[in-house]
Every structure is written in C-alpha cells, then in structure tokens.
Amino acid sequence: MGIKVVATNRKASHEYFLLETLEAGLVLQGSEIKSLRAGRISLAEAYVRVENGEAWLVEAHIAPYEQAARQNHDPKRERKLLLHRKEIYRLEGEVRQKGVTIIPLKVYLKDGRAKIEIAIAKGKKLYDKREAIARRDAEREMERHLYRRE
Q1: pTM of structure
Q2: Residues with Cβ < 8 Å from 76, sequence gap 6 or more?
Q3: In a domain, 148, yes or no
Q4: Other beta carbons within 10 Å of 42
C-alpha cells in the first residue's frame, strides 16, 4: 500500500538542529482520521510532551470533519503517541537536558495507519540560522556560476 505523506513541518530544520528521528503511531478518533486523510492537519506549533511514561502530541491542529456533525473532535486535543517503553524512557532522559525538545517532522499514512515522525531537537540561535542561510545562498551562487560556464 505504501506511504502517503499528509503533512510536514517545514520550519523544523530551520528552527532546530535535528539530533535523532523516530517513528511513532498516533492514536486518533474516527473523525480525526477522516480529516487527516483529507490532509487537514497543521504541525506549526506542535511539540511532544513526555509524562508518566506516556508520550503526547500537543498543539497539533486537526480540523473538524464536516460530515461528523455531533461526534466531531476537539481540533487541539492532546493525542497519545504509540512508542516502545524503552524509547519513551530514552526520550524522557533526552528532554531533561537544557535546550532539547521533541518536535514532529511529518505525519503520514503507512499501510492505512497514521504515523508520525518525531525528532529530538536542539533549538538554533539566531546566528546559527543566519549562518545556515548564508551557506545556502553561497551554494546556490556557486551552482549558478557552474551552470553558466558550461
């Protein structure tokens, strides 16, 4: 059946240094999965919180599904992530370090099941962001010069 990417967090690599990525399952209600299949999800302000041995996706917005009148879901509710116990404990240890957080990178459907790719990330300072932009512009300029010479 394959993988269908539903949403990506495009600002993640600009705002954070991505240290490690993991795949997790996503516990959803019926109207949420319908909305997710339609691509109506936003990961802009979302992050992952670990507490009491469970991982939760917080601040992810899944738009209400129009056809599910009464049985609709709360768009900003916290959603449980399905991870192995060892992974959760390791994530909990990583987050205790200063400046380290867990952010969602993309949501996708894999063999009909909702999955989320999360990353252990460390926030970039403003000068790191400027450096990355300058490096990208320099590479683009070099490519432009090489293309013109041929």
Answers
A1: 0.78
A2: 59, 60, 61
A3: no
A4: 15
Structure-token pair, residue 8: 């990506």
Are 47 and 11 contacting, i.e. CB atoms less than 8 angstroms apart? no
In a domain, 145, yes or no: no
Q: 24 is in which domain, residue-wise? A: 3-124
pLDDT digits (tens, 9 = 90+) for 93-124: 888 888 899 999 999 999 889 999 999 999 88
40-97 pLDDT, tens digit per residue, is: 888 988 999 998 889 999 998 888 877 766 666 667 788 999 999 999 999 998 888 8
We report the CATH number of the domain holding residue 111 as 2.40.280.10
**In a 10 Å sphere around its CB, with 0-12 CB exposed, 13-18 middle and 19+ buried, how is residue 45 labelled?**
exposed
Which two structure tokens, joined as six digits, stand for 129? 């962001």
Would you say residue 139 lies in a domain?
no
The verdict on residue 149 lying in a domain is: no
Give the chain's domain count.
1
